[in-house]
Amino acid sequence: GEMPVSNDHWVAEESRLFKQAHVSAGIDFKKYDDIEVKTHGGSREETPIETFQEACDRFSLPDELTANIDRCNYNVPTPVQKHSIPAVLDGSDVLVTAQTGSGKTAAFLVPIITAALKAGRKPPQEGAVCPTSVVLSPTRELCQQITVEAERLTFRSGARVCAIYGGADAIPQLRKFAGGIEIVVCTPGRLEDFLQRGVMSMEEVKFLALDEADRMLDMGFEPQIREIIENHGMPQAGKGRQTMMFSATFPKEIQTLAMDFLDPKYYSISVGRVGSTTSSVEQRFEDLSYGDKFDQLLQTLKQVKGQNGPAKTIVFANSKGMVDDVTYQLQNSRIRCTSMHGGVSQSQRDRALRDLKTGRAHVLVATDVAARGLDLPGIDHVINYDLPLNGEDYVHRVGRTGRIGNKGVATSFVTRVEPALQDIVRSLRDARKQDKTASEVPGWMQEMAMSSARGRSQSRGRGYRGGSRESYGGRSNSYGGYRNSSRGFRGRDSWDRDDRDSRDSRDFGRDRDYGRRPRDFQRSFRDDDDDLFDGGFRNGFRRSRSTDDDYNYGNANEYGRSRGFSSYPKAVPMNGP
């Protein structure tokens, strides 16, 4: 049997899980009633819930889950939760399109955990582990975030949750679910590898949730998703399996995926206008020359204040090199900042997120890898140092602030005729139609957008390299003759953006330098000073190796290798080669 767990352990776990279980500051619940929700399909008998207590009463939610919902301070469900939770508990498949930060995680976890607790804990068995619920997510960071939320809702309930993802040692993950598991949260690449090894089976899956399905398609995971669902014994949709698909956008690829994997009578829920910006974010635009961008950044960082001092800010740039350059200049300007992009190790990503969450850093400079999915509550300000190359990325960046009813500010630097201007202007106009308090479109920006449209029509075949996903969508075109990989192709596009990795196991565990900065750079923080400008930084970057930057896979021959691990580094001692 299992070893008894002491009360001190549960006290520590409760503190860890629920200390920051929700973002309470500034939540504007009255805005929920103003958000447009469109539904169609299903049994036509779905009735939304108004409170979590109503869900507990209507569907007889387990007492353990009800207690954890209270611990999370969930009172008023978001529009996504109001409609999707009762629909799934009534037995329907759902397709939900909603902006990031709309409470989608709890929307699929509450029904999953309800079913797991009512079914009871499965006894240990030999052979492959057979989870009853599978949650697929595009990135390891989102996977970790969902797992923490699941651990909160299953606290002291007996239901077992396990996260499996690339970029980390596989052995501890195997050990964690060796005794059995009810809920597995995973990235497609690592799950496919475990299935091919025969250590996990999909034969008993009752619930399948695909979170940020559009991003998984962007990252090239469709073959892995189809392999997992179609070729490993998973019950079919409507015949033993309920499927929940969540997406921030609704392109044709998502519609195709829904038709293939959802029950034909699925319930569609659209919250707000898909692809629009949220009216809870004040959007500002600065018309300036390229050479003035950094000086403007310093001024902009001083303009927005948080509730307890400097605003928690994300600065977005389009390339890894620009992220490194901006970070270097900010630190030389004595601003407490950190950075993240696709070229840093998992431990460095975790450290950057931890510094921002704890207030050790007030500014995170990042590529679009930070635009979606990361657990970053309470972001006050988003700055587009580089304007994104399409409207969808703009929506996702702005969506990092003003989440779940909170107020936020987004500032964008516009330095020239930008490819995304038309999409951004259209999004602002649509938001303005729905809510007169939403940000207005500056006149100069409308003129620039029209100029951009004329420029595109005149530059066909003459080397123009812009375009939105809707217009060019990841196919070879005549705008300069290069392949635009905004959608459907793996790897970096020709703008060197890295918001998607072709596989979640790509490049992890490799010690990375910080690009074009000197090797003697050393970042240091003064923890006794919470001011934005603290003077605690030295010049240049220092490349370092530490044990948490290295990955030891133990006996590689014993564990074996397969296609899923073909790009993994060779086993090395924890102290380095």
Automatic annotation (TrEMBL):
Residues 54-82 form the DEAD-box RNA helicase Q domain. Keywords: ATP-binding, Helicase, Hydrolase, Nucleotide-binding. Residues 430-577 are annotated as: Disordered. SMART domains: DEXDc (SM00487), HELICc (SM00490). Residues 85-268 form the Helicase ATP-binding domain. The keyword ATP-binding applies. One of its GO terms (molecular function) is nucleic acid binding. It holds the Pfam family DEAD. The keyword Membrane does not apply. InterPro entries: DEAD/DEAH_box_helicase_dom, Helicase_ATP-bd, Helicase_C-like, P-loop_NTPase, RNA_helicase_DEAD_Q_motif. Residues 490-526 have a biased composition (Basic and acidic residues). PROSITE patterns: HELICASE_ATP_BIND_1, HELICASE_CTER, Q_MOTIF. Its EC number is 3.6.4.13. Gene3D superfamilies: P-loop containing nucleotide triphosphate hydrolases (3.40.50.300). Residues 296-449 form the Helicase C-terminal domain. It comes from the Eukaryota. A motif (Q motif) lies at residues 54-82. This is RNA helicase. It comes from Cladocopium goreaui.
